Amino acid sequence: MTTPVRGYTASKDQLLARLRRVEGQVRGIERMVDDDRYCIEVLTQISAIQAALDKVALGLLDGHARHCMHEGAADGRSDEMATEMMAAVGRLMKRG
Predict the structure, then answer these.
(1) How far apart are CA 22 and CA 13, in angstroms?
(2) ∠ CA 25-31-35 to the nearest 5 degrees?
(3) Which of 21, 38, 63, 75 qualifies as a cystine partner to 8, CB 3.0-4.6 A?
(4) How far is CA 15 from the centre of its chain?
(5) What CA–CA distance (Å, rounded) separates 29 from 46?
(6) Where are the alpha helices (DSSP H) in the chain?
(7) Distance in angstroms (rounded) separating the CA atoms of residues 19 and 95
(8) What angle do CA 78, 81, 85 make, to 5 degrees?
(9) φ, ψ for residue 77 (rounded to 5)?
(10) Closest CA relative to residue 53, chosen from 13, 20, 28
(11) How many CB atoms lie within 10 A of CB 41?
């Protein structure tokens, strides 16, 4: 059984490293709250995490557009793939 090639396969190591950094940042916020740090300092760190996750999401979308959608178009599924990607973008944009 072969592992499927995804749009992020080539950059998987960098993606995992970035996600580990985000995980560390989240643990840092947990310590900040436990230590009763100033609210604005905690919010600043939350903003940094959101920015880091946005960067991960944009990278995944880029890989999806360049790889997965390309393969879908070759299989005659371009409309389906575009609809799926736009729904994902819509979910990413809904915040607050």
Answers:
(1) 14
(2) 145
(3) 63
(4) 9
(5) 8
(6) 12-34, 39-63, 69-74, 78-93
(7) 20
(8) 135
(9) -115, 30
(10) 20
(11) 11
Euclidean distance between the first and the last CA atom of the chain, given in angstroms as a whole number: 42
Q: Token pair of 68, please?
A: 């997965």
Assign 4 a pLDDT band (cuts: 50, 70, 90).
confident
Q: What is the largest CA-CA distance in the chain?
A: 55
CB atoms within 10 A of CB 77: 15
Joined tokens for residue 65 = 């557009």
* Nearest residue to 92 via CA among 49, 46, 61, 48: 61
Question: Across all residues in the chain, what is the average pLDDT?
Answer: 92
**How is residue 34 written in tokens?**
């436990």
Question: In this structure, how many other beta carbons lie within 10 angstroms of the beta carbon of residue 10?
Answer: 12
Q: If you search the block for the tokens 């371009």, which residue do you land on?
A: 78
Name the one residue in this structure whose structure tokens are 């840092």.
28
Whole-model pTM: value is: 0.82
